[in-house]
Each structure stands twice: as structure tokens, then as C-alpha cells.
Write a sequence for this structure.
């Protein structure tokens, strides 16, 4: 690619992408609403609020691909989620439509299906069961991607990421963990496969305990290499198991399923 856009480049996964995707394009255009530090060789930096349609249009101009990590990444008030993840995803797809249909890696989340129980097995055809407003915004993003694919041919990988951290942080992540290496190899596959379409992909490593089946997307050629089982002893030693009726044990989204709706606070409170 000539130019690959990374949104959310100041965040956890965006930082990984910024460091490790330099081989994928002549120029990485890195963007966030937060500060991005110095511009590195081979980069363009652009501060942009995803909620601002004109700014997003400028951001997407000239890009052949987009890794979309930007937005609210945990449960929050509807107004915050709405700006970044609802208006933001609309702005991104409108900009993509106006600027040559770049291929998109959309960071959806396991919280789009977080209210399935941990004893259920899901695949690409499993319907939404969001576990909060954040999860609902990811369902909206997946639907937006599909509509722009069917209407305008924009190709998107709708990647329901599990838990992408350096290592699994709790027992649930022994099932949901996605290693950073596997994330990078997934992004590579998404942009290299000749015909992508608009698949749902579970962003999860080859964990012994895994609830998600990616066989419908074997055509993209992604073979995750890591396995959270390597960390099982240390994770299990670090904490007692949760009670059987604890949401952390019951639901795929873990504690998000038990979180209350966060109400808006009046200005200044
Ligand atoms: P993060 O919270 O570290 O990064 C998100 C970035 O988006 C932040 O740098 C933030 O400043 C930026 N952002 C927020 N609102 C914005 C706005 N209005 N305009 C522009 N930028 C805005 O999140 P993380 O962990 O890096 O996740 C990246 C993406 O992957 C998110 O979309 C998240 O929902 C998704 N994801 C991450 C998972 C994980 O395990 N890290 C799991 C599932 C999904
Ligand atoms: C997510 O969607 C979040 O962005 C991330 O911070 C983790 O909470 C992850 O899901 C998870 O479920 O572990």
C-alpha cells in the first residue's frame, strides 16, 4: 500500500500497530484525538476527532487501507460512545466511500456477543448479544461495515477482538486472549488476501480454552500461533476461581455483563 491509516494510534493496540506495521505501506498515517508524540520517519501524524465528519474525510483522503482502532474501548456514557463509536464509524465509512473504498480492519469486540454463556460455542454466523452500550456500538459498527460492503463494495474485516494484552490477565482471558504477534499477523492477512469481502473474524489466539470458531474465514490464511495455556499456571495461582454464578464465569463478556448503564452526568459534576 502507499498509505495505511491507523486510527486510535495513541492507544494500546494503536501503539503496537504503529510500531509493527511499518512494512505494510510507504507511509503510515497515524491518528488519534490524543497526542501522538513526535512524527517518525515514514509517518504522517494527524490529530482528529472521529466525531467530526469533515476532519475524518480529510483523514481518510489518500489512504489505501485503514486499521480502525480509534474510539471508546470500554463501557462509558452513551454520549461519549455515541460521538466516537456511532457517529465516528459513520464518518469513517462515508469518508471511505468518498475516497476510493479503502479496505478496512474494524476493531469490533467480544462485547458484541458478551451475553452468550461461556459454555456456548460461537462462529461467524452467531448473532449479536451485546453486554452493554459499548457492545451495542460494536454491533452498530459491524452492521455499518456490512451495509457499506453490500451497497458500495467496501471490504472490511469485522474483527471481534477478545482480550489483546501482552499476556492474559485473568482466568477468562485464558479463553479470550489474543497475543500481539497474532494481532499483527491477522492484520497482515486482512490486507494481503486478494478478496476479503466483509467477514466476521474472532480475534483470538490458538488458546486451548477457546469459545470461537474461525473456520468460515480460513480463506484469509490466518493461523494464530500463540496459546494462553502457557500462562495458565501463573494466572490460576494469582487468584481464586470466581463463584459459578459470577458474571465473570458465566458470560463470555465477563464482568462487562454485570456492569450497570453509566448515566450521563450534568456538566461539571
Ligand atoms: P484504547 O482505549 O487504548 O485506544 C483507543 C484510542 O482511541 C485512544 O487512544 C483514544 O484516545 C482514541 N479515541 C477515543 N475517542 C476518540 C475520538 N472521538 N476520536 C479519535 N480518537 C479517539 O483501546 P485499545 O485497547 O487500544 O483498543 C483499540 C480498539 O480495539 C478499540 O476500538 C477497542 O474497542 C477494540 N478492542 C480492543 C480490545 C483489547 O483487548 N485491547 C478487545 C476488543 C476490542
Ligand atoms: C474490550 O473490548 C476492551 O477494549 C478491552 O479493554 C478488554 O476489556 C477486552 O474487551 C476484554 O473483554 O478483555
Amino acid at each position: 500500500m502507499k498509505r495505511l491509516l491507523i486510527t486510535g494510534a495513541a492507544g494500546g493496540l494503536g501503539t503496537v500497530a504503529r510500531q509493527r506495521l511499518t512494512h505494510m505501506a510507504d507511509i503510515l498515517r497515524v491518528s488519534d484525538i490524543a497526542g501522538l508524540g513526535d512524527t517518525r520517519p515514514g509517518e504522517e501524524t494527524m490529530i482528529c476527532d472521529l466525531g467530526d465528519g469533515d476532519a475524518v474525510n480529510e483523514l481518510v483522503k489518500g489512504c489505501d487501507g485503514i486499521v480502525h482502532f480509534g474510539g471508546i474501548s470500554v463501557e462509558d456514557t452513551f454520549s461519549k460512545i455515541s460521538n466516537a463509536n456511532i457517529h465516528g464509524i459513520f464518518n469513517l465509512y462515508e469518508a471511505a466511500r468518498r475516497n476510493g473504498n479503502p479496505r478496512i480492519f474494524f476493531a469490533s469486540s467480544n462485547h458484541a456477543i458478551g451475553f452468550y454463556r461461556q459454555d456456548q460455542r460461537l462462529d461467524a454466523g452467531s448473532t449479536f448479544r451485546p453486554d452493554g452500550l459499548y457492545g451495542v456500538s460494536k454491533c452498530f459498527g459491524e452492521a455499518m461495515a456490512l451495509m457499506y460492503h453490500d451497497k458500495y463494495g467496501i471490504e472490511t474485516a469485522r474483527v471481534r477482538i477478545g482480550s489483546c494484552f501482552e499476556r492474559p490477565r485473568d482466568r477468562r482471558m485464558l479463553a479470550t486472549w489474543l497475543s500481539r504477534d497474532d494481532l499483527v499477523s491477522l492484520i497482515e492477512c486482512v490486507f494481503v488476501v486478494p478478496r476479503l469481502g466483509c467477514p466476521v473474524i474472532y480475534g483470538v489466539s490458538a488458546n486451548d480454552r477457546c469459545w470461537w470458531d474461525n473456520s468460515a474465514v480460513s480463506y484469509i490464511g490466518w493461523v494464530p500461533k500463540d496459546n494462553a495455556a502457557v500462562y495458565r499456571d501463573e494466572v490460576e495461582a494469582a487468584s481464586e476461581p470466581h463463584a459459578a454464578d459470577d458474571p465473570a464465569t458465566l458470560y463470555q463478556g465477563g464482568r462487562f455483563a454485570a456492569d450497570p448503564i453509566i448515566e450521563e452526568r450534568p456538566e461539571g459534576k
Remarks:
- Residues 77 and 266 are 12 Å apart (CA to CA).
- The chain has one domain: 3-258.
- The domain at 3-258 is CATH 3.40.50.720 (Rossmann fold).
